[in-house]
Please model this.
Amino acid sequence: MTLSTMPHPDRSVLDRAASIVRGLEALVGAAGIISDDEGRRAFEADALTAYRQVPLAVVLPRSTEEVSKVLRYCQENRLKVVPRGSGTSLCGGALPAADSIVIGTSRMNRVLDADFVNRTITVETGITNLAITEAVSAEGFFYAPDPSSQLACTLGGNLAMNSGGAHCLKYGVTTNNVLGLKIVLMDGEIVEIGGSQLDAEGYDFLALIIGSEGQFGIVTEATLKIIPRPEAARPVMLGFNSCEAAGQCVAAIISSGIIPVAIEYMDRPAIAVCEDFAKAGYPLDVEALLIVEVEGYENEIPSLLSDIIQIARAYQPKVIEASTSAEHSARIWKGRKAAFGAMGRISDYYCMDGTIPLGRLPEVLSRIAQICAEHRLKVANVFHAGDGNLHPLILFNANDADEARRAELAGAEILKLCVAVGGCLTGEHGVGIEKRDLMEVQFTPTDLAVQMRIKSIFDPQWLLNPGKVFPLSASQSGERTEPEAA
Amino acid sequence: MYDLQRPGADWELQFIIAGCAERQLPIEVVGSGTKRAIGRPVDGAVTVTTASLRGISLYEPNELVMSARAGTPLSQIEAELASHGQMLPFEPMDLAPAIGGPQGAQTIGAVFATNMSGARRILYGAARDHLIGVKGVNGRAELFQAGGRVMKNVTGYDVARGLTGSWGTLAVMTEVTFKVVPWPETAATVIYLGLPDDLAMELLATAMAMPVEVSGAVHLQAPVAARLAHPGLRSLNKSVTALRIENSASVVGGRKQRLQEALKIYGKSLELDHRETLEFWGELRRLSVMPNRHTLLWRISTKPTTAPKLVAAIKRYMPADAYYDWAGGLIWLEVPAAADAGTAEIRRVTAIHGGHAMLIRADATVRASVEVFQPPSPAVEKLTRGLKTAFDPAGILNPGRMYANL
Model:
C-alpha cells in the first residue's frame, strides 16, 4: 500500500537516538525502555499491518508519574510521542514514526477500585477491555463496550478511539460509559476530569478526550460505569432471500419499541466463510442473515423472542431459528465472533468501518458490490445492523501489489459512498492514518480547523500521535500553529 | 439599550456575530430564555435568540434519529416524537416551576447546551449521550458542523458532544441531531414510605444492582414529598422513595415483583399504575416539588453513598430539604436565602465528600456575586480557558455566564 504516510523524520532526532535513550532511562530505568532493534520491531505496526515503521524507542511506564516525567522530557526535547495500548488498532492509530517514542501502557493494568454499591470501577488504562468485565462479573456486573478485540485491546485504546462493539445499540459506546479519567498532558501536567459521579462539571472535556485518538494526552486511569448483567441473553437467527427484506426487518424491529441488545448482519459470502470455520449451523441458501439478541430474565426470553419473530414474519424470512439454550446461543455467536478470523484464513482482507443511515442499506450494499466488482475484488459484509455501522471486508492478496492498491481504492470509494448517503467514514475503528486523507470528504476546512484548534490546547507543539486524523496538508500547517493568548 | 436579534438563517447569525466580534460587543445567547435566571447574569450589548431558527429538519423513526433547528420548542419535538410512539429518553427537565417563567417553552438547542437530564438518565444516559450532531456558529463567526446523523461515528474529535453543557459560551448551535427511543409499552412505580436518607440510598442501590432496568430511582425527604400533587402521597408526612420500571407489558409485572421481593425488608410498598406513574414522574421532571419561593436551590452531583452524608453535613450549617435523584447521585437541595447563597459551606462540604455543586435558583444580585458553577481545578481551568479561546477568542459569547472571568 502507499507509504507516503508519515511526515519526514527529523534527522537531528535520529542522530541523537543514543542520548535520548539514556535520558529516558534516567527517568524510568533501563527495564522500562526497549531500544534494541529486535525489541523495537515488535512495535512497528498495529492491526493495520500494511503500514510499518520501527520507532526510535519504546517506553513502558509503570505509573502515572512515570508517564508524566517521560512526556515532559519528550516535550522539552521536542520528541514525537505515539501512545499505544496493545496495538489492535485497525486504522494505524498506533503506527509509530521513525523519530517517535512509543509509550505503551501495558504495565499499567491494575484495577484500583471496584465500587459495587455505586456501580463504578476505577482502573489503569493498560488493562484489557475483557479484564474489566472479569473483575466485576462475580458480583453480577459487566462493563458494556465490547469491541471484537476485547480479549486483547486495552481500555486506553478504547478511550482513544471511543470504541463500540456489538452491544452498543443498547448500552452506548465508550464515551457513554466513562465517568472520569486522569490524563497526562504533553507538558507532564496530570489533569483529573470528572470523577465517580454521573455528570462531570464544566465543559465536557470527557467528550473531547474520548475519541481524540491519543492526540490530546495519555489517559492513565479511568472510572467507568458498570451495569448489572442480565440473567439471560439469547439470539434468534433470521435468514432472508434479499438484503432489502433483511434491512426492512431491522428497521421494523427497532421502531417497534423493542431495542434488542444486538442486531448483527451477514451477507451470503460472509455466512459461507463463517459457517465453514465455526460450524454454527448457519443457513447457506439465504442472501442475508440477521442475528438478533434479546436479554432479560430467563422467564422473559421466550416472549421477547416471539415478539421479534412476529415482527420478522412480515418480511418472509426463509429461516427462523431461535436459540433454546445457552449452548445453542454460544454456537450461533461463535460464527459471528469468528468472522474476521475466519475470513483471514481464506484471504487477506481490508476491513472498512463506515456508518450509513439504516434506510439506505439496500442501495449501499448493492453499490458496494458494484464498486468491488469494478475493481475485480470480492467483498463480504459482516456488520452491526442496528446502528448502520458497516464492515465490508474487501478480499485481496497482499502479495499482489496491484490488487492491494485496488483494494485501497475500492475502500476509499466505499467510504465516500457512506458519506454521500449521509453517513460517516468510521463508526468505531477511528481515523488514524488510514482515513486521514478522506477527512476532507466529510468535513469542510472550517470544520477541521475547529477540531485542530482543540488539539492545540492540549498539545500546542503537535507532538502527540503525529500525522494521524487530519490530512497531512492540514496538520502540517495552518490552524495548528495558532495557540493564541488567552 | 436592549438589542434583540432573531436570526432566521445561519448566515444571518454569522453576520451578527461577525459584527459583534469586530466591535467587541458581548452577546447574550438565548433560546426562548427560560433559563436566563440560571447561571451568572450576562450583561450583553446584544441578545441573540435562536427562536427563529425553528423546525424539525429530519425525522427517521425507523432509525431512531431526529434533527431540528436549535430554536425549535421542546414541546413541538416531543409532540412529533409522541405521534410516532417515541421520546427523548433522558427526560429533559423543565425548570420553569422551580425558577419561574413559562412551562414547556424551552428550545431543543438549550436542552443540549445545558445538558440538564431528568430521572431516566440513570438508565439511558444524559442529554449529552444522545447528541450526535451539531451545526453552529462560533465566536469567530465561523459556521461549522460536527458529528452527523448516524449514531456510531468516531470520525474526528467528538466536538458535538463537547458543546453540551457549555451554556452558549463556545458557539451558538443552529441545528442539533439526536438519538430518540420508543416509548416503553407500560410503566409502573414501586414506592416505600418513611425511610431515612441512608436507608433509602441503600434501598436504591440494591434496586440498581438488579438487572430489572430501573428507569427512575428517587428519594424525597418528607417536607419535599408533602409538595407532591398525588393526594395519597402528599398527606402522609413521610419521605417517599420511588422506583420506576418501564418495559413491555409482558416484562414489567414480573420485574416489579422481583424488586418487591428483594426490597421487602424495607417495609410494605405502594404501587402506582401506568397513569399515576406518568403523573408522578412528570411532576419530578418539572421539579414542581421545589417551587419558586424565596429560597435557594442547589444542584449537587456526587456518589450515591456519599449523598446522605453530604446533606447531613450541610444541615449542620443551615436548614436544608433534599430531593435525591439518580439513585442518590444527584441532590436537589433547598436552603434558606442568604447573601452568599451558603456557597462557602456548601462548596466546602462538597469538596470534602467529593462531587460538585451548582447554584440553580437565587436572586440575580446573588448570582452575580458568587460562583454559580463549580469552580474548576487550576489544571481544568487552564483547559477551560483554552477551549473558550479556541471557539471564541474575543470572548463575546455569553461572557461571564459560567465563570466570572471567562
Q: What stands out?
A: Chain A touches chain B through 95 residues (CB under 8 Å). Confidence is low (pLDDT under 50) at residues 481-486 of chain A. Residues 240 and 316 of chain A are 7 Å apart (CA to CA).
